[in-house]
Amino acid sequence: MKDTDLYSRILGLSDPWFVADVELDTAGGRVDVHVDHVAGVRWRCPTCGRELACRDHAEPRVWRHLDTCQFKTFLHARIPRVECPEHGVLQVRVPWAEAKGRFTLLMERLIIDVLRECATVSGTCRLMRISWDEAWNVMDRAVRRGQTRKKTTPARYLGIDEKAFRKGHDYMTVVCDLLGGTVEFVAQDRKTESLEDYYRQFTAQQLERIRAVAMDMWEPYFKATIKHVPDAAHKIVHDRFHIMQHVGQAVDKVRRQEHRELLRQEDERLKGTKYIWLYREENLPDKHRPTLEALKATNLKVAKAWAMKESLAGLWNYLSVGWAKRFMKRWLTWVRKSDLPPMRKVGEMLSRHLDNILTFCRHRITNGAAEGLNSKIMAIKRRACGYRNREHFKTAIYFFCGGLDLYPRQA
C-alpha cells in the first residue's frame, strides 16, 4: 500500500480530500502529511450551508496529529474560501479539525483524555510533547465548547458554597448541582452580586424549576436567592453540617475558656480533650470513651455544652416541620437559660434562621455534594501548586468538575 493511501485511510479522508504527499524526516523525528482536494468542487458556507464555488485559498495551515510511532505527525493543507452573499468571505470547514484549532480532532481528544487523567497541565505537556500554552488552549477551548452545549436550565437541587482562592479572605462562589455532583457556576467573591450573576442567566419560568437550595447562613447568598428564586423562603435549606459546625465551635470555645480557668487552679482535667467533645457520641473511638464518661459525670461547663450539641443532632431525624419546631423551641430555651455565653450566642443565630433550618424536614438536602466538590477543587489547586490567575482557576474547575461535554466533533 502506498504511504499516501495509508494516511488517507488513517485520517479517514473522503472525496474531495486526499493525501497528496508524505514526507518523513527521521533526523527531525517528524512526518509531514500534505492534504489536497480535487478541483471544481462546490463548498458549503460554514454559517448557512449554501453551496458555493471556491473563491481562493487561505494561507497554508499546519495541524498536529497523533504520533506515527515515535515520530510527531503534522498535517498541511490550504483551506478553500467561499464568498457567501449573506456572510461574506469565509474559510470552509475541514473534516479533520475544528475552526482555529492547532490540533486534529483525534489529537485534541487525546490531549483532553490525558489532561483529565494527569489532572495537571505540566504532566500532559511532558507526555504529549506539547507546550504549556498549547495544552492550556485545548483545556480552555474544551470548557467553552462544553458550556455552549450545556442546557440553559438550572438544576432542581442547588448547593451554594464558597471556596478560598488564596489566603487573606479571597473567596470564590461555587454553585453546584446536588444530584448531578457537578459545578454549575463559579463567580468571583462571595457577595450578593456574585450569586445574582448565576440567577440572571435564567428566565423567571426557568427559575421556578428550582425545588430547593442548600447553603450556609451567609446573608449575601440568602438575599440573592430570595430576590431571584420564586418562593425561595420555602426552598432555602440551611446546611445541617454548617449548623453543627457552628455549634461544635461554640462547644470548643466553652472548653477553652473553662480549661484556662481550671489551669489557674492547677487542674488539668481538660488537657488534650479537644476532639473528644467534637465527636458525635456514636462516632467516638473506643479508646476515648472512658475519659468522656468520667468527664461527663463531673459538673463541667463543657459537659453541659456537649450535651446541648448532642441533643441538637436529634433535630435531623424529624420529618414533620411542626414537631421539629417544637423540639427547637425547647432546645433554644435550654440554651438561652444556660450560663454558657458561646452557646447562647450560637442559639441566637439559629433562632434568627430557624424557618430555613426547619425546611430540611421538607427537602432533606445538605451541602455534602458541594463539600465533596470543594475537596476535589482543593486537590486540583494543590496539584497545580496554586493559580495566580483567577480565570485559569475557574477554567480548571469547569474542566474537571463541570460535567461538560468537552470533546470536539467532526464537521
From TrEMBL:
Pfam families: DDE_Tnp_ISL3 (PF01610), HTH_Tnp_ISL3 (PF13542), Zn_ribbon_ISL3 (PF14690). InterPro entries: Transpos_ISL3, Transposase_DDE, Transposase_HTH, Transposase_Znf. Residues 92-143 form the Transposase IS204/IS1001/IS1096/IS1165 helix-turn-helix domain. Residues 158-397 form the Transposase IS204/IS1001/IS1096/IS1165 DDE domain. Residues 43-87 form the Transposase IS204/IS1001/IS1096/IS1165 zinc-finger domain. NCBIfam families: transpos_ISL3. This is Transposase IS204/IS1001/IS1096/IS1165 family protein.
